[in-house]
Write a structure and sequence with these properties.
Elements: E1 2-6, H1 10-18, E2 22-26, H2 29-34, H3 42-52, E3 57-60, H4 66-77, E4 83-88, H5 91-102, E5 107-112, H6 115-123, E6 128-131, H7 134-138, H8 143-155, E7 170-173, H9 179-188, E8 192-195, H10 197-204, H11 207-225
Parallel strand pairs: 1-2, 1-8, 2-3, 3-4, 4-5, 5-6, 6-7, 7-8
Helix pairs in contact: 4-5, 6-8, 8-9
This protein binds erythose-4-phosphate (E4P).
Length: 226
């Protein structure tokens, strides 16, 4: 499993990138709004993220028609070679994904919740599909069950021929709220988990690691004073 950071916050991205395990970043309009982002700065902001991260950076189109999404997608893809255009799973989004994919522009289909949505995204040429976990949990449904179904369904077919550079389609476990979501997504075989910085920090730590470290330090002090 690879790890993407789900944020538009440059400080978080810089910090996570310095840990050596970051493979990409996903942003969305809400994440950009959360950092006080302004429309006029958006493209420069994405360019900055692309400089920090050596991997795919998803930037979302907010257009609602296929032509506008394609236009957005071309503009976003021109920012940097590692930009991936994030497109919502809807009819206009599917149509735009087909055009962008045919032009060699990688698409991450977002707001994907069900197996039929995921299969349509794959058939439309999406390079990445982002099934959301946490938003199902928010409405008292099991997001992990839904993700498992998407992983199984996608893996039943060969989608190597419909994506940019013939690379295999990858499933991004999105809307991740806990380290356990990551564990379960990895056990199911999701290719990538995109996680908020808070979850990434929790993934690193465990109380037994802390306890073990503390006792090693104490014992090492004894060695030094022996
Ligand atoms: C995915 O790419 C989305 O940006 C994200 O995972 C949404 O998560 P949320 O449900 O916590 O907003």
């Amino acid at each position: 499993m690879k790890f993407f950071l789900d944020t538009a916050d440059l400080a978080e991205i810089e910090e996570a990138a310095s840990w050596g395990a970051l493979a990409g970043v996903t942003t969305n309009p809400s994440l950009y709004a959360r950092i006080g982002g302004k429309l006029a700065d958006f493209e420069n902001h994405i360019a900055r993220i692309c400089e920090i991260v050596d991997g795919p950076v998803s930037a979302e189109s907010v257009a609602m028609t296929r032509d506008e999404i394609v236009e957005d997608g071309r503009r976003l893809a021109a920012i940097a070679p590692n930009v991936v255009v994030k497109v919502p799973t809807m009819v206009e989004g599917l149509a735009a994904t087909r055009t962008l994919a045919d032009e060699g522009i990688p698409v991450n289909m977002t707001l994907c919740f069900t197996v039929p949505q995921a299969l349509l995204a794959a058939r439309a040429g999406a390079r990445y599909i982002s099934p959301f976990i946490g938003r199902f949990d928010d409405i008292s449904e099991d997001g992990l069950d839904q993700l498992a179904n998407v992983v199984d369904a996608i893996n039943n077919y060969d989608f190597t021929d419909n994506t940019v550079n013939g690379e295999k389609i990858e499933i991004i476990a999105a809307s991740v709220r806990s380290a356990n979501h990551v564990t379960q997504a990895a056990l199911m075989g999701a290719d990538i988990a995109t996680v908020p910085f808070g979850v990434l920090k929790k993934m690193v730590s465990h109380p037994l690691t802390d306890r073990g470290l503390e006792s090693f330090m104490k014992d090492w002090e004894k060695v030094q004073n022996a």
